[in-house]
Amino acid sequence: MKRYAKFVIPAVAIVGVLVVLMVNLSSALVYYNTPAEVQAREPGQSRLRLAGQVVAGSVIEADTTVVFSVQDCDIAVSVVHTGTPPQLFSEGIGVVVEGSWNGEEFVSDTMLVMHDEQYRADAEDYDKDLHTCSES
Amino acid sequence: MTSTQHRTTVWPWIVMAVAGLHTFVASMTVSPDVVQGQLSRIMYVHVPAAWLAYLAFGVTMFASAMYLWKKDFRWDRRALASAEIGVLFTALAIGLGMIWAKPTWGVWWTWDARLTLTSIMFFVYLGYLALRRTTDNLDVRAARSAIFGVLAVVQVPLVHFSVIWWRTLHQPPTLLNPEGPAMDTAMVITLLIAVASFTVIYVAMMFKRIELARLEDEVLVADQTSSGPVAGQAVTAPGLTKGS
Amino acid sequence: MEYANEWNWVLLAYGVTYFALVVYASSIALRISRARKRLGGPS
Questions:
Q1: Cβ pair C28:B208 closer than 8 A
Q2: Helix (H) or strand (E) holding A79
Q3: Is B45 in contact with C13 (Cβ distance < 8 A)?
Q4: Residue B176 maps to a domain
Q5: Which member of C10, C35, C42 has the closest CB to residue B216?
Q6: B149, B121 in Cβ contact below 8 A?
Q7: B229 secondary structure, DSSP code
Q8: Is residue B17 part of a domain?
Q9: Model confidence over B13-47: pLDDT tens digits?
Q10: Is the ipTM of this complex over 0.85?
Q11: CATH classification of A35-125 is 2.170.270.10, yes or no?
């Protein structure tokens, strides 16, 4: 009985955790939408994620909001973000914003910086155009 | 041969310390990355930890298959040792990833495919360790866990290729990039030093963990063969006397 | 906007790494000596 309990309790706990993870996995497989996909959507309240590169020269910072455009494959969407951007937020970097699409702008309250796979000591070696188009 | 005649090995402890120091010196002296700054140093422990999780679960698969073929308990103990160390390194890879993610992405955790699949892998191998506690019968335990150990390895390629197959927040592999390493040569060398050092730590840990597994099996057999205090001479059982 | 120093994160990461490795290695050593004691041999 003791040995039985020793297995069943962890087993039930582990199976429970796995079920939760599997449910999360289905939505995790497509983590974000591209600007083109967002533009093709009907305006609405549904929550989604948008990813792209921050367009150089588009960033306007105010007290509590940041306005900028994100671009992927030459299609740009403007974003109105409320909140403090992450430490590495800058022009040219990839970001994922979470919020809703109102037909004109993407209204976001959560922003994640998407770091790419490049590791370079020198700015000259860094390829800024590596992820300008995710469809390539 | 009795259990008391098995000598304990000391060299793995020394090897672990040297390899650990080696990684530290190498990863603190290399140039930082232009975008991430000093945060890029976390990569020299995060990537080796993830690599070792893959390696350890690969070894568990191999040892489990060897057990099913040869029915030799030494393979069962190697499978267990590697799985336990693999769980440690999976946890480490996840923890270090979180410490990197908070300042880089801006969040500790998010449910993208790479992170979700890695946590599933962690819990499945915890399940492997739990499964081994279900029975005192060495044959039954070894056979059950060997089948589990072979099947569970499918998660390794799933975790590794998740960043290529699906849209994830986690970046694609830098070193094993399909289009060649996207990293400076000095950093590649540093990372390879760290990976090699961690692999040495894994091998040293395996030696000690296998020694422990053999002792634990001897204790188990001793408990089953005598109800009184354990006598050293009584501790012999099939498959246990061949050394580690 | 204040952000934590990058070095703090690096130190945290390396601290966690070596702490985990040392704790695990010690747990193996402890379990070995316990098992040896149980088997009645010199540890």
A1: yes
A2: strand A75-82
A3: yes
A4: yes
A5: C35
A6: no
A7: S
A8: no
A9: 888 888 888 888 878 888 888 888 888 899 999 99
A10: yes
A11: no
| Amino acid identity for residue B29 in this structure | T
* C-alpha to C-alpha distances, A117 to A95, B105, C15, nearest whole angstrom: 14, 13, 25
What are the residue ranges spanned by the domains of chain C? 11-43
Q: Which amino acid is at B136?
A: D
Q: Domain range for residue B122?
A: 41-220
Asked whether the beta carbons of residue C10 and residue B20 sit closer than 8 angstroms, the reply is no
User: Where does residue B99 rank: exposed (0-12), middle (13-18), buried (19+ CB within 10 A)?
Assistant: buried
- Strands A65-72, A75-82: parallel, antiparallel or unpaired by DSSP? antiparallel
Residues 15-74 of B with CB under 8 A from C: 16, 20, 24, 36-39, 41-42, 45-46, 49
For chain B, the residue count is: 244
Q: Indicate the pTM of the whole model.
A: 0.86
**Mind listing the pLDDT tens digit for each residue in A38-88?**
888 888 888 899 999 998 888 888 888 999 989 888 888 999 999 888 888
Is B26 contained in some domain? Answer: no
Question: Is position B111 within any domain?
Answer: yes
- Quickly state the pLDDT bin for B243 (edges 50, 70, 90): very low
Which run of H or E residues covers position A49? Answer: strand A48-54
Distance CA A132, CA A105 (A): 20
Q: What is the pLDDT of residue A18?
A: 79
